[in-house]
Design a protein that fits this description.
A two-stranded antiparallel sheet has the order 1-2. Among the domains are: 61 residues; 58 residues, no CATH class. The protein is elongated and about 80 Å long. The protein has seven helices and two strands, in the order H-H-H-H-H-H-E-E-H. The longest helix has 20 residues. Helix content is 43%, strand content 4%. Helix 1 runs antiparallel to helix 2. The chain is mostly helical and 188 residues long.
Length: 188
């Protein structure tokens, strides 16, 4: 069996409890209180039962405490995934984004909206641009995707149907059927 790892002796259990009162991080507080229990003479197994962790985790807390004191027990941010781009590539990408699109190179129409070239011809996300087939696409609908074309076609059909049933704004109220204004009167 390996030798036990000693805990720093420059802090007392009272110091750790006092520090725990001032800390806003609840995870750091429970770590500090578990170590205060150890400094009071308790075992690491007993200290692990209080916050509901394993003795191995308490051992890791002791190592962090020995290395950084009470601040070493603060919740740390996970490192996360490493970046795909290095600093040079990130700077170059920022330059490209700041420069914006080049109309001749990136295929922009006069209004500044993107034009997609597909095997069936040109299409655009610009409301003013009409495809060779005569269909116009909404700004969000990419004509190069089937889904975008289907949604645009469905909206066009729906709006033409709804126009037939729309009531003109400010319709004459005189032509509306008269309603029974006195609800107490029962037709007999």
């Amino acid at each position: 069996m390996a030798a036990a790892i000693g805990i720093r002796s420059d802090y007392t259990s009272a110091n750790l409890r006092q520090f725990a009162r001032r800390v806003g991080d609840p995870d750091q507080v429970r770590r500090l209180l578990a170590l205060a229990l150890i400094l009071d003479g308790g075992s690491r197994s007993e200290a692990a039962k209080v916050p509901g962790v394993t003795p191995q985790i308490v051992r890791d807390w002791v190592l962090r405490f020995n290395e950084g004191g009470p601040d070493g027990l603060a919740t740390r941010k996970a490192p996360g995934r490493t970046s795909i781009l290095n600093d040079e590539q990130r700077a170059r990408l920022a330059e490209i984004v700041e420069a914006g699109p080049i109309p001749a190179a990136h295929g922009l129409c006069a209004g500044g909206c993107a034009i997609w070239r597909s095997g069936s011809g040109m299409s655009s996300s610009c409301r003013s641009h009409v495809t060779p087939s005569g269909a116009s696409f909404a700004p969000w609908a990419s004509a190069s995707s089937r889904h975008g074309r289907a949604i645009a076609a469905r909206r066009a059909v729906t709006s033409s149907i709804l126009k037939k049933f729309r009531r003109p704004s400010g319709a004459d109220q005189a032509t509306a059927p008269e309603r029974n204004t006195d609800r107490a009167v029962v037709a007999g």
